[in-house]
Amino acid sequence: MTVKVTFAGSGDAFGSGGRHSTCILVEAPDICFAIDFGTSSVIALKALEIPHNNIDVILLTHLHGDHCGGVSSLLMDAMLGAKRQTPITIAGPRGTKAHLPTVQEVLFPGSGGMKPKFAVDVIDMDVLTPHDIEGLRVTTYPAIHTEATNPTSMRIEVDGKTIAYTGDSAWTEHIPNVARDADLFISECYFHEKRVPFHMNYPDLTEHADELTAKRTVLTHMGPEMLAAQERVKEECAFDGMVIELEDQA
Ligand SMILES: [Zn+2]
Ligand SMILES: [Zn+2]
């Protein structure tokens, strides 16, 4: 069985390279889910002609807008335009349940009184605890990023495949465990030579290469300096619309 991963949005917080904010769509035989859902995710999915009504679960790594700011647009469109009928589960770090309605009321004042015709289940996930979310096994790990965003890295098991993602984070002692033997390890990589705090930069990855045992690695969330250097690195670099199919090993 194939698990299809589509980078609908592979950009950073500021649209560098004209890219959409983070939205990684995963289609497995029995479930469709998004890993992060940044501000422009509804636009990104529509550009790829992927109906967001297909999404059963949204997993959020942290509360920055370029990773969760598109949820309110999805919910508004699901109520008003896309006429969603099926339930949706949104699981994120501690504080997600309180944060999402606040964001929605800021972006769409007065929308809080609207009652969707579908169930919306929002879950705050504890770190270092496996959660069963609609058949996905999701474990989050503490990340080093803006503290107020409750940042996490994430490891997801779906249909016998493992997808690991750093979220936005500087290198942490947990990242080798997040990525261990994963079928796909998605690492943010903000800068190529310069090192900035609270983010993974290319030197962090090369220095820790022998600790990373994933079968395939893709870099994302690249800023302008990293985008300019991507031809010079050996790792695969994501782009908006990139598709990766994780096949069963023969
Ligand atoms: Zn970000
Ligand atoms: Zn962030």
Q: From the structure provided, what is the oligomeric state, counting identical versus distinct chains? A: single chain
Name the overall outline.
globular
Main beta sheet strand tally, sense and closure: 7 strands, mixed
User: Which residue ranges are poorly predicted, with pLDDT under 50 across at least 5 consecutive positions?
Assistant: none
The number of helical runs is 7
Give the termini separation. 11 Å
Detailed description of the structure:
The protein is α/β, with parallel strands linked by helices and 250 residues long. The protein has a single domain, classed as Metallo-beta-lactamase, Chain A. It has helices at residues 41-47, 65-68, 71-80, 96-107, 175-179, 202-207, 224-229; strands at residues 3-9, 23-27, 32-35, 57-59, 88-93, 120-125, 131-133, 136-142, 152-158, 161-165, 184-188, 217-220, 236-237, 242-246. A 7-stranded mixed sheet has the order 6-5-4-3-2-1-14. A hairpin with a 4-residue loop joins strand 2 (23-27) and strand 3 (32-35). It is globular. The N and C termini lie close together (11 Å). Bound molecules: zinc ion (ZN) (2 copies). One zinc ion (ZN) binds at residues 62, 64, 67, 145, 149, 168.
Quick overview of this protein structure:
The chain has helices at 41-47, 65-68, 71-80, 96-107, 175-179, 202-207, 224-229, and strands at residues 3-9, 23-27, 32-35, 57-59, 88-93, 120-125, 131-133, 136-142, 152-158, 161-165, 184-188, 217-220, 236-237, 242-246.
